[in-house]
Design a protein that fits this description.
40% of the residues lie in helices and 21% in strands. The chain is α+β, with helices and mostly antiparallel strands. It is flat. It starts with a helix and ends with a helix.
C-alpha cells in the first residue's frame, strides 16, 4: 500500500539548470505582463475620454479619494508625455550657465549642450527583492535583460570663451564617453585660436560639432544595444545547453566595434563593425584554428549588427 501511494506522487526533483531556466521563463512572463499593464495604464491616462470622464465625475459626484488619486496620476502622465515628446524631438539643446569657480574665465559664463540618448535595454540585476547570483552549475540568470525603453542620463558638453569679447569657444568640461573621438571632432569644428586677440584662425561651427558628437554617441549605444540583444538570444534550455549553440557574446573594445562570439562546439568568431553598425570583417575559427566559411557567410548575410541576432537564431 505504501509503495502504491508513493508511485502516485509526481516527481518534483529537477536539476539546478532546469530550475534556473524555469525561473528565467517566469521572470520573462512577469516582465511582459508588467510592460503590458504599464502600456494600458499610460494609454488610459492619456486618453481624452478619460479627461472627459474625470471632469464629469468632479462635477456630478462628491469629492472622493479615488477621484483625487486618478486626477493626480493623470496630471503626472500628461507631464511625462510632454517631457518625452520634448526629449524625443529635441535631441540636443543649448543652455547658458555659470561656473561657480571664482577664478573662472569670462566671469564663469558657460554655454552648455545637453544630448539626449534613448535607452532601449538595460541589465536587470535585481527583481522583486531577489538577487540572482552566479553559481557553479547554474544558468547565468543575472544577465536577464529587461526591455525598459526609457531615456538614459543625458550627456553634457560645456563650452566657454577664454578671451573676453571674443566669440571663440573652447571645451570647458564634458561627460561624453571616453570612447567617443571628442578631441578629433573639436579640432575639426572648433579650431584653436592662433592670434593674440582671441580670434580663431578658421571659422568655428558649434552646430556641426554637436551633430557629429550626437551621431557618435547614438551609434555607440545602438551597437551596445545590438550586442546585448545578441547576448540575450543565447537562451538556455532545460538541459543547460544553449539552444542556438552560442555560449558567449561580448565586446572586445570600448567602442563596441569588435565583437567576439563563442559557440558550444568550441568555434570562436570575431566581428568588426563600422561606426554605423555595418559588418565589415568576419572571421570564424573552429577548435583546430581553421576558418569556417559557412558561418562567416551566414554572419555577413545579416549586413548589420542589429540584424545579426535574428540571423543566428
Amino acid at each position: 500500500m505504501e509503495d502504491r501511494a508513493s508511485s502516485l506522487i509526481p516527481e518534483t526533483q529537477s536539476s539546478p539548470s532546469s530550475l534556473d531556466a524555469e525561473i528565467l521563463q517566469v521572470c520573462q512572463q512577469i516582465q511582459n505582463l508588467v510592460h503590458h499593464r504599464a502600456a494600458l495604464a499610460a494609454a488610459l491616462l492619456s486618453s481624452p475620454s478619460s479627461q472627459t470622464l474625470l471632469t464629469r465625475a468632479k462635477a456630478q459626484l462628491s469629492p472622493s479619494p479615488h477621484i483625487t488619486v486618478f486626477e493626480k496620476c493623470m496630471k503626472e502622465q500628461q507631464r511625462q508625455n510632454v517631457q518625452n515628446s520634448y526629449r524625443m524631438c529635441a535631441g540636443a539643446t543649448m543652455f547658458e550657465g555659470r561656473d561657480p569657480d571664482p577664478n573662472a574665465v569670462d566671469q564663469g559664463r558657460i554655454v552648455g549642450v545637453r544630448i539626449e540618448v534613448f535607452n532601449r535595454r538595460t541589465f536587470l540585476m535585481f527583481w522583486a527583492g531577489i538577487t540572482f547570483r552566479k553559481s557553479p552549475g547554474h544558468a547565468d540568470i543575472s544577465e536577464y535583460i529587461e526591455d525598459t525603453r526609457t531615456f538614459r542620463s543625458p550627456y553634457y558638453l560645456l563650452l566657454n570663451r577664454p578671451h573676453p569679447g571674443s566669440s571663440y569657444l573652447r571645451v570647458h568640461q564634458h561627460t561624453i564617453p571616453q570612447c567617443i573621438p571628442l578631441q578629433h571632432l573639436v579640432e575639426k569644428h572648433l579650431p584653436s585660436s592662433t592670434s593674440s586677440d582671441g580670434k580663431p584662425s578658421e571659422p568655428q561651427n558649434v552646430a556641426r560639432l554637436v551633430r557629429d558628437i550626437r551621431r557618435e554617441v547614438i551609434s555607440y549605444h545602438l551597437r551596445q544595444d545590438a550586442i546585448m540583444l545578441l547576448g540575450e538570444r543565447k537562451s538556455t534550455g532545460a538541459d543547460g545547453e544553449h539552444q542556438n549553440g552560442i555560449k558567449e557574446v561580448k565586446a572586445v573594445d570600448a567602442e563596441n566595434r569588435d565583437v567576439r562570439i563563442e559557440w558550444e562546439d568550441g568555434s570562436v568568431g570575431r566581428i568588426v563593425v563600422d561606426s554605423s553598425g555595418n559588418l565589415e570583417k568576419v572571421v570564424v575559427l573552429n577548435h583546430e584554428r581553421s576558418r569556417i566559411k559557412e558561418k562567416e557567410r551566414n554572419i555577413l548575410s545579416a549586413k548589420t549588427l542589429g540584424n545579426l541576432a535574428q540571423t543566428l537564431m
